[in-house]
Amino acid sequence: MSGFTNNIQFVYVLAAACFVIGLHLMNSPATARRGNQVSTAGMVIAIAATLILMIHYGTVTATGWIVLITGALIGSGVGLYAARTIQMTAIPQLVSMFNSVGGGAAALVAIYGYYYAESHAGGVLGTTTVFTVLDVIIGSVTFSGSIIAAGKLQGLIGGQPIVFKGSRLLNLVLAVVAIGTAAYMLTTASLLALLIVVLASLGFGVMMVLPIGGADMPVVISLLNAFTGTAVAMAGFVIGNWALIIAGALVGASGGILTKLMADAMNRSLVNIIVGGFGTGDSAVAIGGPVDAQVRSIAADDAAIQLAYASKVIIVPGYGLAAAQAQHGVAELGKLLEDRGIEVSYAIHPVAGRMPGHMNVLLAEANVPYPELVEMDEINPEFARTDVALVIGANDVTNPAARRPGNEISGMPILDVDQAKSIIVIKRSMGHGYAGLDNELYYNPKTSMYFADAKKAMTELTSAVKTLVA
Amino acid sequence: MSTALVTDLTIFVLALLVGIEVIGKVPATLHTPLMSATNSIHGIVLAGALLIGVTAHNWVGYVLAFIASLFAAANVVGGYVVTGRMLKMFRKKAPQVSQESVESLDGHKGLKGLAGKVGIGRAQS
Predict the structure, then answer these.
(1) A361-376 burial, b for 16+ CB within 10 Å, e for fewer?
(2) B57 chain-A contacts, CB cut-off 8 A
């Protein structure tokens, strides 16, 4: 390693420091924007250092420059366009696509490294092969798996778990082929073997995500994010680049932590989600059983009266709210109640929405100030002194059955909605949540059911409250 | 084990620990922007994609370099832009003027909210 490349490595470490500081600043919404700017600065430094290094080597051909610059420009254009135009409800798909291309690029870097070393004197080094195959396997699985995840979220592929006869066996075969071939590569350098590893891993990525239900996607996206980070770190080992190693490790750690948080919040183990459990996705809502006699149903006017004369209201938004695109309606209603001097806050369960923290982004977009969005542990003691808890499109996370042993959601952390003095549930029908379980909250004598689409309900409620107040 | 490998592994392990430490402190409110931010950080793979060009002197190298740089550039540019877009929406409607973040009072939305809270005027949008 010459003095010059050492200097460049040091610049990479500086860039990595910017990434860490940027992430650190994200510990509060007030400083998070600055954090993103610091992180961006780090990235600019790292890319500039890379370009300087390339010029210093002086071996990049004219064609090479053209190819790289064209590729980077097209990629930037696509990324910029997607980032500018994407709807906030579709953020999980976009994140998934960025995971996909990131993982794909990491795999390609290692594939090229292997191809180059194999075709030149000295051949492929043992340790390099280890990192190469790890990078290729993880990167390829992420690439194809993330595309499937994005397709499911976008509704291009059915949200239900797709399982066919022998799919588990095929999964196993693909895994064995990928790992077996990779093991063979440790002893014998072979480009054909590398190709087999790539193909088997791509297949495995598809097969891994297909059987996972739409409701489990928050966990899958976190996991694939961790995978991408790890793949990038492995690429860093292959080409001996500290920027890639540090940045990849940071992302791997963050994805890992978020995956664990999500899985805990759903009371499911990662293995359970990957192998495929009871998750039936988001399709079950519309088909409901007959309305039980014990369930009390109310109309918009009655609900409006309860809300307008309350002194403290907690809104519990869930998956159904995002699906109905009702976040702006909710924000408007919340604002209206606040203007009447009513204390309004939002109870956010960790898995509300389609990825970790998604509900917060949706409500922030609808101009709900972030101090009103309260996390589960903080809001739970508040329910007891709440007049009305308004549940919109949330189901399993409010089911008191979770406190008892012996059912699918036992032990799952829930919002203590049933502690409120009165409860209004807005729901399209008496359908089940994705756990396929009856929600005992609906049979609570304090609960009134308001059967309507979330978006329509918000319009009706808001105008009913306005009429009442006027 | 070569010295280079030991160095690389040390850096990797320390970075993992730093990552765990830093990420653990991010509140759930920001988990989506956080994931988007880490998403843009793994766009650093663009550096790796560009470096393919240093030794790529035939069509295989050029093709791989082209696809890798395209993917990585989409990742890094899109990631940072969308993270910025999301974070811009998080605003705090400060109940009293004096405190904490002055940033949250930029944009008239914050001021309107303030007016509504204090009761200066009706905050209709």
Answers:
(1) bbbbbbbbbbebbbeb
(2) 61, 64
